[in-house]
Amino acid sequence: MTGSLAARLVLRRSPPSRLHFRREVSLPAAERRREGVALVKELPAFGHTPTKYSGISRDEILAKRREYLSPSIYHFYKNPLQVVEGKIQYLYDEKGRRYLDAFGGIATVCCGHCHPEVVAAIVEQTKRLQHSTVLYLNPAIAEFAQALASTLPANLKVAFFTNSGTEANELALLIAKLYTGNQDIISLRNSYHGNAGGTMGTTAQSIWKFNVVQSGVHHAVNPDPYRGLFGSDGEKYVRDVEEIINFGTSGNVAAFISESIQGIGGIVELAPGYLSAAYSIVRKAGGLCIADEIQAGVARTGSHFWGFEAHGVVPDIVTIAKGIGNGIPLGAVVTTPEIARALTRRNYFNTFAGNPVCTAAGLAVLRVIEKEKLQENAFVVGSYLKERLSALKDKYELVGDVRGRGMMLGVELVTDRQLKTPAKDETLHVMDRMRELGVLIGKGGYYGNVFRITPPLCFTKEDADFLVDAMDYTFSRM
């Protein structure tokens, strides 16, 4: 599963579609006659009929959320979407309307919603044994751990399972401190690694940080090719890591943690050469290198199974979640046998980590990715989608940047290309309009002006065309 697909595949790109579409809800004739703009027709054909919904109404759900759920929980769209069913790359609302899911539950659904083989694995395991404890032997966790190790390079083969990405990163930071005997952590500005005690410290966006004590973490200058001070010059950015170690620590650090592509930060790719140079500097200071693969991992980038592979590095610890469970709460920390022994100095335990149902789902996910060649599809269709999105940049001044790999793409909107002024209001407008047209996308970035396009890896070229034509049409009417 590992290795570069780019070296093995010849991508055959067809010319961008210039279809003149009609919507499921008809458009005025004047709009349908607009020249040079791809209007939006029906979604690509799909042979699934959703079950008729008979649950509580959307207004009742909103009322219950307001009364019984935390006020910190927010929703997309001015008119919140109610989702009651999912099938592969599509979601359905309470009225049975189908939507193209280009967000994938925040880069989580990789095989597709309710994939029959993943569902079957979950159901069969649930029928046999829903939960016991890792204090007893069970084949599900052992088989999944072996399969997961087979996707990773070098000696990364010992897994600790968790329930989420935040838990995985918390545990990775703990292991690094225990193993090295050092306390200082270096992360990148604009990063997101979780919302618990330690991970909130490594997260470097004020919008995700509460005013609580967060010590022992240093945030290095972000090697952002679009908004960064040094463009794509990775070597210039990495000097800041060296200066942090020399002037902000005792000269020794516990770890450097980084996403290979920043997800919540706005699908930001790291400047070429940066990660390998940073790893070298950190290791000289006694630190471990942690690859946060929670969003970019599990075949999502297409060219490689793990995002860090595109940078030519091998981390000491890898953290995994989201896509590995296809929606089931499952995370993992994978490291070497030597580093893993650091947790044996005291007892470490997690009641639900390694749950047989979750690990059975994880194993099914790996098998489906291989069987259906989803990594290859992420590369081919993702490259095609990025090419079509890049054409919008040539057409509309509103599009400041198009970036990412495979099925992890970002489109940044700006009101002024020279000043790179974030177009936050325009981003919200386009999201709402595309939802009306039947396309669901996410948003991110510190300024909330980046579309996060992270669909299931089974996305087709027809889906890609529908998404881009919907975006094209929406831009044309602004």
TrEMBL record:
Protein name stated in the entry: alanine--glyoxylate transaminase
Record InterPro entries: Aminotrans_3 (IPR005814), Aminotrans_3_PPA_site (IPR049704), PyrdxlP-dep_Trfase (IPR015424), PyrdxlP-dep_Trfase_major (IPR015421), PyrdxlP-dep_Trfase_small (IPR015422)
Keyword Transport: no
Annotated EC: 2.6.1.44
Organism phylogeny: Eukaryota, Viridiplantae, Streptophyta, Embryophyta, Tracheophyta
Family as reported in the entry's similarity comment: Belongs to the class-III pyridoxal-phosphate-dependent aminotransferase family.
Catalysed reaction equations from the record: glyoxylate + L-alanine = glycine + pyruvate
PANTHER family, A to Z: ALANINE--GLYOXYLATE AMINOTRANSFERASE 2-LIKE, PTHR45688
Cofactor: pyridoxal 5'-phosphate
UniProt GO BP: photorespiration
First-level EC class: transferase
Entry keywords, A to Z: Photorespiration, Pyridoxal phosphate
Pfam families attached to this UniProt entry: Aminotran_3
Domain of life: Eukaryota
Molecular function as annotated in GO: alanine-glyoxylate transaminase activity
